[in-house]
């Protein structure tokens, strides 16, 4: 059996990400862009309820993207590459993740939305049955005298997921026209359970059962591992959502009502 030190290094390396570069999402059917956004009036008595309904509708309508107005797919969110280098010296492992997909956002139910017009802030609470992350990975390195080399597919399933979004806006008025942009998008995703699956295609000392030990260890400590990597994962999701949000507001400037 591999040592505890190796297991801990492999667990962190398998599930953590440090660098991300967004890539194109796959093709899909395109809904009519003119019906994707349901505008809300600033002086309505149910502004927050309207915002919640509008966000939930948009997640469904723009699931596969709106190519006619330059909005990329929301579900799945695609990331071309993720990379992690863990440790140094005798304990060092490099994981590279390719063609990673974040899936399940379009199935979210928006529980609430609260728009603060004067502070230009929008808080959104969501719930979804399942989020999934999958893609390809390669691994190379070593732990003490044990060489590590593997590749294959991986999948992470998050169930009963509660999410919170916090959007901060900037506005600029020119010639009586207000332009809206998001300058910060904070994402928090909290699942009730997490399941990790990695292909068992290990080279070298494969007889030690490294793949099986890693999966077993990760799933026995699923939430603890998730909470350890959560800050890095949320940073990546925040960057992806920020990009999509500004695509939306560039094409639909009236999606959020602000005082001029």
Automatic annotation (TrEMBL):
The name this protein goes by in its record: Protein takeout
Signal peptide stretch: 1-22
The entry's keywords: Biological rhythms, Signal
Superkingdom of the source species: Eukaryota
Family: Belongs to the TO family.
SMART domains named in the record: JHBP
Keyword Cytoplasm among UniProt keywords: no
One Pfam family recorded for the sequence: JHBP
GO biological process: circadian rhythm
């Amino acid at each position: 059996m591999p040592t505890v030190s190796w297991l801990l290094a492999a667990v962190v390396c398998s599930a953590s990400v440090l660098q991300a570069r967004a890539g194109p999402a796959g093709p899909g059917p395109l809904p009519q862009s003119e019906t994707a956004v349901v505008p809300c009036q600033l002086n309505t008595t149910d502004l927050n309820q309207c915002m919640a309904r509008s966000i939930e509708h948009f997640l469904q309508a723009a699931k596969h993207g709106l190519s006619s107005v330059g909005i990329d797919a929301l579900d799945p969110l695609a990331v071309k590459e993720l990379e992690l280098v863990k440790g140094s010296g005798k304990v060092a492992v490099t994981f590279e993740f390719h063609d990673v997909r974040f899936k399940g956002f379009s199935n979210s139910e928006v529980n609430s939305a609260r728009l603060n017009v004067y502070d230009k802030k929008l808080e959104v609470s969501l719930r979804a049955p399942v989020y999934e992350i999958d893609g390809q990975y390669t691994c190379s390195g070593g732990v003490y005298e044990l060489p590590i080399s593997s590749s294959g597919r991986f999948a992470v399933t998050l169930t009963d997921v509660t999410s919170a979004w916090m959007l901060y806006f900037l506005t600029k008025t020119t010639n009586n026209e207000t332009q809206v942009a998001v300058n910060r998008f904070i994402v928090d995703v909290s699942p009730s359970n997490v399941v990790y699956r990695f292909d068992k295609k290990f080279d070298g000392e494969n007889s030690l059962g490294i793949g099986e030990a890693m999966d077993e260890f990760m799933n026995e400590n699923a939430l603890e591992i998730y909470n350890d990597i959560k800050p890095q994962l949320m940073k990546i999701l925040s960057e992806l959502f920020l990009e999509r949000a500004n695509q939306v507001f560039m094409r639909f400037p009236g999606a959020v009502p602000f005082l001029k």
